[in-house]
Each structure stands twice: as C-alpha cells, then as structure tokens.
Protein: CapA family protein
Organism: Candidatus Caccoplasma intestinavium
Amino acid sequence: MRIFLFLILLSCSVILSAQKRITLFFAGDLMQHQAQIDSAYNEGTYDYSDCFSAVKPLVSKADIAIANLEVTLGGKPYRGYPAFSAPDAFLYAIKECGFDILLTANNHCLDRGKKGLDRTLSMLDSLCIPRIGTYRNESDRSRRYPMIIEKNGFRIVLLNYTYATNGLVETPPHIVNRIDRRVMRQDIAAARAIQPDAIIACMHWGTEYKLLPDQSQKQLADWLLGQGVTHIIGNHPHVVQPMELRTDSTGRQHVVVYSLGNFISNMSRTHTDGGAAFTLVLEKDSTGHTRITRCGYDLVWTGRPLLTGGKRFRLYPVSTPPDSLLPTAYRRMQLYADRTRNHLRTYNIGIGENRKE
C-alpha cells in the first residue's frame, strides 16, 4: 500500500512540475497633466522618484507588466493637456516601477507631430522598453508586430489599436495602429499562424467618462473574440468600466476588460482620480492546454499634493493604511474605492477584486 501511495504521489509531482504559469499585469493610462509636470520640477530637473514607489510591489511581482503610455516624450517645452509632452524622467520612473511593455496606440500619440512620435519611439528604444502600437515605418512594424512575448514557456501575442488620434494624421512613413477591421483581421490571422498560447488585444476605445461600455465597444469585443482573440484589455474612457469572464461553446474562458481607467493623472472629477490594475494568471499543462487560473483587479488612487500635503503626485493602492495619509486624503481615497467597488460589483461578470495577500 505504501509503495502504491508513493507511486501516486510521484505521478502527481511529475504532473505539477510539468505545469507552467505566467502572471500578466495590465495598468491603465499613464498621464502627465501640467500640474504633475510642474510638481515634479526640482532645480532644473524633474523628479518622479517617489511617484510609483507605493505601487511598485504590485507591478514588479508580475512576470510581464503592461501599461498605456498616454503622453509623448516629445521634448521641451513640457506640456500637459491638450498636447502632451512629458519629461524623460517620467519614462525612467515608469521603467523603475517595473513596467515591461508600453502601449503607444492612443489618441494622444501624435500630440507633438512627427518629431514627437520619432522622439517617443527613440526614448523607448534607448531604455530597451518594448513598445507596441506606433512605428517609424512599415519595416519597423513588420519586425515588431504582432508582438510576441516568450516567457516561462509561454508564447503570447499582443495587439494594440486606437480609435483615433484627435484629428491628427501621421506623416508617412509613420504608422499608427488604428481600429480597422480589415487590418485587424489580417493581424489576428498572422497572430494565429504563430500558434500562441493566447492572443491579447489592447484596445484604446470607448467614450470618455462613461461608466459603461458603449455599443461599439461591445460589438467590437464580440468581433475580436470571434476572430480568434483570447482576451481583451481596454483603455481611454479615463474611468473604470466593467470586466467580464466569458466562457465560449468549447469551454474556453475569455477576459474582456472594457476600461482600466487612469493609472496616474491629475483628473479630479468623480470616478477619474484612480483606476484599476488587472492581473491575469495563465497556466499551461503538459499537453499544451492553457487556462486561466486566476484573474482580478486592484484599485489605485492618485494622491494630489493639494490633498496629501506632499510636493509631488503619488500613486497609492487603495489598501494603503490610514496612518500613511492625511485624514482628508485617506477619506477621498476610500470614497473613490467605495464608488468603484460598488460599480464593479454591480456590473462585473465573474471577476472580483484581488484579495490582499
């Protein structure tokens, strides 16, 4: 009997060791409004050293962390809305926080024109930060797109598209990935030909400040899944929209996150002063079958100096203890958290908040 039990345990250990796991982390909009830029100024330079320090443990524990870079790095003069150009120090802080990949297809990617796009791509390349969504030319795009992530024994394809660029048009040979079903169908077919474990589409879409997805988002999500996309992560509305865990007719599960909201910004209207970060854990067994083992969200809140009493803007997990913030700031953070939790509890399907470990 003991020999038989030993064989069972040995068999189980072999099966467990054959399983592979990867943790993906998705954040919302990385923004720099004028007040953020001004507050980071420090004797001729810009200091973002403590901007992300409170959320770094959340970001860095993932195998791959991805966020939407919704500014250009177009150089001086540094400006916020409506034509963003952030100091280079902001990008250094993003990398230091632990982000591995940045999305660049969004409605602000052409804010500083051809030179701004060129400089943004050059800065990302100089820091060896993989980028997806905008390209110098067709050769640059064909080498980088679809983006293939190979880590922990997984092969994952990443796609990125934007609905528009605020009326600006890229100067040839520059390319911005736009939401165009003909192009996307070709890209998805190319992605499927790679035979990845998952195809994840990061979409810059929807209507700003709307708490629920509009009809175009819903229809496009259905279309993307029908074409072979596995999971969808959305941005742009600057508020958190619902998340869904769907199961198709084959039993395979798909995540649809309509909007993660702002990761960091100077927006202060209701629902915009924070955002959600989404964690997706995939596991692959010895047969090559990939499944979701865990998915959920964490809420974050931007502490503005006016509320926190600090000099600079700083991002906080909403689990931050009350003795770490001024009472007024803590109450505002909890107000944001309560509103967002109530909204997601009402409209989410199959996805909840990550439990504090």
